[in-house]
Specification:
225 residues, alpha/beta, 7 strands, Rossmann fold, seven-stranded parallel sheet, 7 helices
Length: 225
């Protein structure tokens, strides 16, 4: 259970509770570094990582749920910005973001700002998500830049929706519990888990793509061969 008490900064502004979900098969610098930059831009004190159990929009993971969880924990164990929540891994059904967000909203109350972090690639396909229209009724969306993706959105109706809710600065995010979209100028890292898995299959080095602890774990478990 998340603590909704003492959820303000020293200046009295509400602390934004931010969530970042993913398959993390494996977790890598393309996940971690943009979110760290986003935290600096927005003033996030904590980001909860949510490993997916059964992602509905992606191929099923190669590593097991337990292996992916262990890699996530290893990747952030010395980083106080991040913590890990296992509620999606504990489900036996597909991980629908809107349902997870509702559970967090119930825990932190109606007034504390809640934000969900996505990449610019996910923003382009958000209209395919389950009950995507409800997302901004529950949370803000914080969008990290991705290589090769630009505004406007390819779907004109989605572009109108984006313009209606978009804010140019992070300040409004702490003033309302939900409802805004902030597109952050985070580092453009062209790293993907798919490419990392392919490189492992080819026997190529991934040392510059993910933390050493994750590389060591992958090697010790013989993953992605």
């Amino acid at each position: 259970m998340l603590d909704s008490l003492d959820a303000t900064t020293d200046t009295g502004a509400p602390i934004i509770q931010a969530l970042f979900g993913g398959t993390f098969d494996p977790i890598h610098y393309g996940h971690l570094r943009p979110v760290e930059a986003l935290a600096q831009l927005v003033g996030l004190k904590q980001v909860i990582l949510l490993p997916n159990h059964v992602p509905p929009h992606r191929p099923q993971p190669e590593a097991t749920a337990q292996q992916r969880l262990e890699m996530v924990r290893l990747a952030v164990k010395d980083n106080p910005l991040f913590t890990v929540d296992t509620r999606e891994l504990e489900r036996k059904t597909p991980s629908y973001t809107v349902e997870t967000l509702k559970s967090f909203r119930q825990e932190i109350g109606e007034q504390r700002p809640l934000a969900f972090i996505i990449g610019q690639d996910s923003l382009q396909t958000l209209h395919t998500w389950y009950k995507w229209e409800e997302l901004l009724d529950i949370c803000h969306l914080l969008v990290c830049s991705r290589p090769g993706y630009q505004n406007p959105l390819s779907n004109p109706e989605m572009q109108q929706w984006f313009e209606k809710h978009h804010v140019d600065t992070p300040f409004p995010l702490s003033q309302k519990p939900q409802g805004y979209i902030y597109l952050a100028a985070t580092p453009l890292l062209n790293i993907s888990a798919t490419n990392i898995r392919q490189r492992h299959q080819q026997g190529l080095s991934c040392d510059d793509l993910l933390p050493p602890s994750i590389q060591n774990y992958i090697d010790s478990r013989g993953l992605y061969r």
